[in-house]
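User: Batch of two.

Assistant: Item 1 of 2:
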Amino acid sequence: MRSEPNSFSEAVELSVTPSLVLEFLFCPRFIYFMECLNIPQHEELRLKVQLGRSVHENKQRINKDYLRKKIGCIKKEISVYLNSPKHHIRGLLDEVLWLKDGTLAPMEYKFASYRERLFRTYKFQLTLQALMIEDNYELPVQRGFLVFVRSKNHLLTIPIGDRERLQAKKAIEQIFDIILTGKFPSRTRSRAKCADCCYKNICV
């Protein structure tokens, strides 16, 4: 009988989703409440989440054959589910783009306006998707793309380098540490986030 893993290196069969990593970045205690205590956040009740999912479904239907040739796209797959045992990540990607320079790139649609500011979570999400793409397709990823639906589909190019990859892998290790040890982590340093947190009534 196989014993339960107690370290990141032993947890070869476990994986996280990019969404879970983004929850971790919001506050590490999200992982504790969701994964250690099994208390759901009921995100399906949030209007923005519902609208975002609707946008993704519409884009998949309307833009099925559209290729962005200005960025060198020569082929694409939409709504791609990938699993990377190497990096312990799994998830559904909006689009995987083939570029004419021989690289691949993730494209993510955001039900948001472009504010001339790149949030850290966006870069993390694309980097995690890049790791999954590289592991599954065995082709390099050097950049990702964001489409801001509420700013007339403004397109933003995000470089993805070694530094971003290391940060993403470190975040996954920290998540596994919480899940496998059940250790109650420190809360986010930004107390402003607590006011908008679904766990604020049970977090001490």
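Item 2 of 2:
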Amino acid sequence: MKQDIFQAIADPTRRAILTLVAIQALTPNAMAQKFDMTRQAVSKHIKVLQECDLIKPEQSGREIYYHFNAKKMQEFDHWLAQFRQSWETQFNQLDQLLTTIKEQK
């Protein structure tokens, strides 16, 4: 079953994995050491992230390195942008209201 990107990033460990591989490509063993968990547990998280195209594998000799897929995260960012603009407008209106109330005192 293909995972949804929101399910993938809902888990704190998977978000932490994304942060790590955004800095540098890592093997599952290297990730397991960072999280003090088994390689098998990390592999389950990697599987979910890979199904959502958030990370991409690259074979290098006997090791598989996982890279951050910035393009997929950019798609997610574009989707969020529509809400970000609405929130910013509402916060600006709240700031103006609070400034007006403060000036009236």
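Strands lie at 55-60, 63-68.
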